[in-house]
Design a protein that fits this description.
4-stranded antiparallel beta sheet; about 575 residues; 16 strands; alpha/beta
Length: about 575
């Protein structure tokens, strides 16, 4: 009985992952067993390693200390496999070494918040987690029966042979069924450095067109909504109907139905919206702070807060999240915000807390209205970062745990906040920009892929510009998050500039960019580039960075895509050399 339980524990994660991936792929292809069989083939190497380590540790002739080390190694590999599976299910990506380093200091706190564990509960859980593997590693088990000792090792040694049937290059979503080791080795090319000779000989010129226009020093609110995605809205996609308030606002103002996030995490959205820089990070190792949040994007002198402050604006960053997560508080101050506020604001003490120790969105909007009142005597930029629609999804009012419930609550609070701004006369001299920070970290819906294509679907988010002096309109040309920065700075300084890679969202100079860059969350070693009619994939690999999807017909165009990506990453690498890495206290 004991051996049966042990076998079930060992194979359960493999079977669960196979089932999950098979359903994932079925939604795209309508084909069953493709995902399941590929999981078995890819993970045979890992399970082969686990079984070999365990088998050797049970041999009667092996020393007890060595047996303990072998079992601990097997348990560590097994734990990595389980964590990777949990991340795939919850965040639609793999366990990446860079993420593990970046978020390690906050992960225990996040788990504690999600499950409501006290400090004592965390200690008890930690002791149990340590005690079980230590007991399993050191205790003596009954020796293997000599009669059956030989056939398991033949089976175990044969497992790696199954890897020969893995097919990881032909299918667009092959990343999901790669094993965690193979995945991390594949994306390692992202860290491949540029050679000194390549950098010295590299040059890239981007023609820029500028037009002067009367400056309009309006009050500006950027409302960056966590995980707000086009598929959640009937107005923006027709797929779901979870955002009636957002849809009503969109119908009354300027709505952008072909708008894209430049990255896949909140950090990327903040960089794009507030600095106008593409959130592409330089080649780096974990020893030179490459695992630091916002790496190479600290102390940006030409950030939106710094630009607006030169024109008399007061700039504020508001969120109910813990500012220590991702070093957000330090970064926000480094890019010029006069005032930065997070979860420890005393006004939130009377509210229930959720993940990231955050009060619900309703509390954030109450606080934002108070800050608006305090700034009514001067022009201001207010950047609001919501939290309630972050995974794990929960409606703070009803406690229902589902994505639809969380988004419905989020939408309700957006509607309330908008109506308060209307009642307070904000739109007489103010602009409200409502935008998603990134696509939700959930598997793409079949309807999304059919509507937008598999690459664009993962970047599609809503954008609404509510300006009391502009008539309602629907924009179908493609735009992106960095265009928000570009357009707002132009509005205030009286000079709008555009290029093939930067657009202008409003005014007489309104111009869509020809190309949009999106940092992918599934394949970290690849970057998507969108044009109006085609999508391309660029493989990040130092000097050997290249287009790997369907190749453009002209060599000059292929080179343009590669040169632009390289120019962005080389610029960030040079900036990182001049700025000491910022670390949280």
């Amino acid at each position: 009985m004991g051996k049966t339980v042990l076998w079930l524990i060992l194979v359960a994660p493999l079977l669960l992952k196979g089932w999950y991936v098979d359903n994932f792929i079925y939604h795209y292809t309508g084909t069953r067993l493709l995902g399941f069989t590929q999981v078995l083939c890819n993970d045979a190497l890992i399970y082969g390693g686990i079984f070999i380590l365990l088998y050797l540790s049970f041999l009667p002739t092996i020393m007890r200390g060595l047996a303990a080390l072998l079992r601990l190694a097997a348990l560590l590999l097994f734990a990595v496999y389980i964590i990777d599976y949990a991340i795939i299910v919850n965040f639609n990506t793999h366990l990446a070494l860079g993420d593990a380093i970046k978020y390690a200091d906050y992960s225990s706190k996040y788990i504690q918040q999600i499950y409501g564990l006290s400090d004592f509960g965390v200690i008890v859980l930690g002791v149990l987690i340590l005690a079980i593997p230590l007991y399993f590693s050191w205790v003596r088990f009954k020796s293997i029966n000599p009669y059956i000792k030989k056939w398991p090792i033949c089976l175990v040694l044969g497992l790696p042979l199954a890897a020969a049937f893995a097919d990881n290059e032909k299918y667009a979503h092959a990343w999901i069924y790669k094993n965690v080791i193979d995945y991390n080795l594949t994306i390692l090319s992202e860290a491949a450095p540029y050679s000194v000779a390549y950098v010295d000989n590299f040059s890239f010129q981007e023609p820029i067109n500028c037009q002067t226009q009367p400056a309009q020093p309006k009050n500006i609110i950027i409302l960056m909504v966590e995980s707000l995605s086009a598929y959640q809205s009937r107005f923006f996609s027709g797929i779901h109907d979870w955002t009636p308030n957002l849809d009503e606002i969109a119908g009354q103002h300027q709505a952008f139905k072909n708008f894209y996030a430049n990255g896949f995490i909140t950090e990327d959205g903040e960089v794009a919206l507030l600095t106008g820089l593409q959130p592409l990070y330089p080649p780096s190792s974990y020893t030179d702070d490459g695992g630091t949040s916002f790496y190479s994007f600290y102390n940006i002198k030409d950030s939106l807060p710094n630009i607006l402050k030169k024109h008399g604006y007061k700039t504020e960053f508001l969120t109910t999240a813990d500012l220590e997560f991702g070093n957000t508080g330090v970064w926000a101050k480094s890019v010029g915000f006069d005032y930065v506020e997070g979860h420890d604001q005393p006004e939130y003490d009377k509210w229930e807390r959720f993940h990231f120790e955050a009060a619900p969105d309703e509390a954030l909007y109450v606080r934002a209205l108070d800050r608006i009142e305090n700034n009514k005597k001067n022009n201001f930029l207010l950047f609001i970062k919501t939290v309630s629609s972050h995974h794990p999804y929960i409606n703070p009012e009803t406690k229902e745990k589902s994505e639809s419930a969380a988004i419905t609550y989020t939408d309700k609070q957006i509607g309330r906040f908008y109506r308060e701004l209307q009642n307070n006369g904000f739109f007489k001299n103010g602009i409200l920009i409502i935008v998603g920070d990134h696509h939700s970290m959930t598997p793409l819906k079949k309807a999304e892929v059919e509507l937008y294509g598999q690459y664009k679907a993962s970047a599609k988010v809503p954008l609404i510009i509510a300006d009391g002096y502009q008539p309602a309109s629907v924009e179908n040309n493609q735009y992106q998050q960095i265009d928000v920065f570009n357009s707002l700075q132009g509005l205030v300084i009286g000079k709008q500039c555009s290029s093939d890679w930067n657009g202008i969202l409003f005014g007489v100079a309104k111009t869509p960019p020809k190309y949009i860059i999106h940092r992918r969350g599934d394949n970290r070693d690849m970057v998507s580039v969108f044009s109006d009619n085609e999508d391309f994939l660029v493989k990040l690999d130092g000097d050997n960075t290249r287009v790997i999807s369907k190749l453009p017909a002209e060599q000059a165009f292929r080179q343009l895509l590669v040169d632009k990506i390289n120019a962005l990453r080389i610029a960030r690498a040079k900036w990182a050399l001049t700025q000491s890495a910022e670390k949280s206290d």
